[in-house]
């Protein structure tokens, strides 16, 4: 014997399924945005030194273009208009890079202050991030987790955990509300 449901019950079931689907999609979007922010925070830290160098190199490149013969520097550019576009593109790239590097520097200062006030564990997280990603390096080789573990006298797994936790903290400083997992 088949049990029949009323139209009202069917509508309620459909509406509930629709609401559940929408909530799942919103959660997925939020999670994806949060994961992207964590990935971007890691990328910014990984490339911090290169970004800093890029800003300095771009500055000298723009000065060289203005002071040297631009035809020699940009031999594939055929007109003044193209040369000006190239210089403007370099300038925009430099400005964006300098803004990002400045934002990272400010965020790291805030993070340092937060970590120092929160105790030794958080202070170690800050020092590890600074050691691996921010401090000047020798021979253009970024320190590994193993080297950081040896430097700080802790286990490699502890370094990994500290880096993950610090990146979560820094993600909030870098990206604001989008860096928080809701």
Which key terms come to mind for this protein?
single chain; extended; mainly alpha; 182 residues
Question: Care to describe what's here?
Answer:
- Residues 64-80 have low confidence and may be disordered.
- 80% of the residues lie in helices and 0% in strands.
- It has one domain (7-179).
- By secondary structure, it is mainly α.
Provide a brief overview of the structure.
The chain has seven helices and no strands. With 182 residues, the protein is mostly helical. The protein is extended.
Describe the main β-sheet briefly: none
Instruction: Output the radius of gyration.
Output: 25 Å
Query: What is the helix/strand order?
Result: HHHHHHH
Shape type: extended
| Helicity, as a percent range | over 70%
Individual helix count: 7
Low-confidence segments:
64-80
- Give the N-to-C terminal Cα separation: 47 Å
Number of domains: 1
Specify the structural class.
Answer: mainly alpha
**Mean pLDDT level:** 79
The total strand number stands at 0
Strand content: under 5%
Protein topology:
Layout: H1 7-46, H2 48-67, H3 70-73, H4 80-118, H5 120-134, H6 145-152, H7 156-175
């Amino acid at each position: 014997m088949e049990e029949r449901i009323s139209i009202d019950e069917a509508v309620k079931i459909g509406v509930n399924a629709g609401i559940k689907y929408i909530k799942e999609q919103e959660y997925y979007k939020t999670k994806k945005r949060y994961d992207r922010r964590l990935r971007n925070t890691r990328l910014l830290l990984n490339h911090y030194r290169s970004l800093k160098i890029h800003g300095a190199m771009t500055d000298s490149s723009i000065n060289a273009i203005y002071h040297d013969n631009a035809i020699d520097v940009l031999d594939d550019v055929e007109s003044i208009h193209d040369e000006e576009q190239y210089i403007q593109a370099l300038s925009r790239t430099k400005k964006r890079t300098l803004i990002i590097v400045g934002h990272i520097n400010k965020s790291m200062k805030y993070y340092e202050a937060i970590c120092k006030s929160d105790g030794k564990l958080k202070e170690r997280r800050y020092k590890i991030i600074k050691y691996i990603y921010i401090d000047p390096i020798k021979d253009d080789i970024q320190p590994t987790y193993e080297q950081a573990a040896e430097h700080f006298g802790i286990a490699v797994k502890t370094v990994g955990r500290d880096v993950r936790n610090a990146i979560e903290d820094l993600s909030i400083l870098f990206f604001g509300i989008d860096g928080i997992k809701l």
